[in-house]
Amino acid sequence: MPLSEEQKLNMKKRRESILEVATGLFATEGYEGTTIKKVSEAANISYGSVFTYFKDKEELFRTVVLEPLNEFSDVLFDFNPDAEDPTKELEKMIKTHIHIFSGMNSYLTLVIQVVGQHNKFPEIFSELNQFHDKLLDKVSRLVENGQDKGLFIQQPPFTVAALYTSLLIGVRLNTTDARLSAIWDSYISSIMNLFGPIYK
């Protein structure tokens, strides 16, 4: 007998609850310290119900780390590297990225776990790496565009892009203030300077 719309909605909500709770637990207690039992208790569902959605802890961790990439990619990649005004496009990109990263604290903690233990999570690391390389490539193209137009100083575009993403991650992990507070917006002009815009 097929599920009703209400049953489907309830299952979706339960799955989202599991993922939200698991994200917090994996971020604070690490992979080893997180158990399905802890997840089920924190999500207020039965132990067995977790396995309705995820085969095991490994699959749950993989989903918690990789599924958000689909949501993030729509916004992180929403800039034009071939813009007529690369300086303006750069500022818009940085503002967007700052606002996204400001709300990523728990998630970035998971990313750091995977990167720091890439031999333990090779498949997850590979997918994260591909995502990061794609972002670096697009940011690099925007830098090249600005350099070609004589608006940015000459420096290796890929290096600048890598420093940029590292800075965003570092600022989020080292900042305990609330998401989207005024301090985040105050970083924008300093981050702009990383790209070497030439002010005339």
Describe this structure in words.
By secondary structure, this protein is mainly α. It has 2 domains: 1-54, Arc Repressor Mutant, subunit A (Orthogonal Bundle); 66-194, Tetracycline Repressor, domain 2 (Orthogonal Bundle), CATH 1.10.357.10. 74% of the residues lie in helices and 0% in strands. It contains 10 helices and no strands. It has helices spanning 5-33, 36-43, 47-53, 57-76, 86-101, 105-116, 122-148, 157-174, 182-186, 188-194. α1 (5-33) crosses α2, α1 (5-33) packs across α4 and α4 (57-76) runs parallel beside α7 (122-148). The longest helix is centred in the first third of the chain and has 29 residues, at 5-33. The radius of gyration is 20 Å and the shape is elongated. Residues 35-54 bind DNA. It comes from Halalkalibacter okhensis.
Largest sheet properties:
none
- Identify the CATH architecture of the largest domain: Orthogonal Bundle
Enumerate how many helices there are, as a single number: 10
* Intertermini distance: 69 Å
User: What's the helix-strand series?
Assistant: HHHHHHHHHH
Mean pLDDT score: 90
What is the CATH third-level topology name of the largest domain? Tetracycline Repressor, domain 2
CATH class of the largest domain reads Mainly Alpha
How large is the share of residues in beta strands? under 5%
The H-level CATH homologous superfamily of the largest domain, spelled out, is: Tetracycline Repressor, domain 2
Overall body shape: elongated
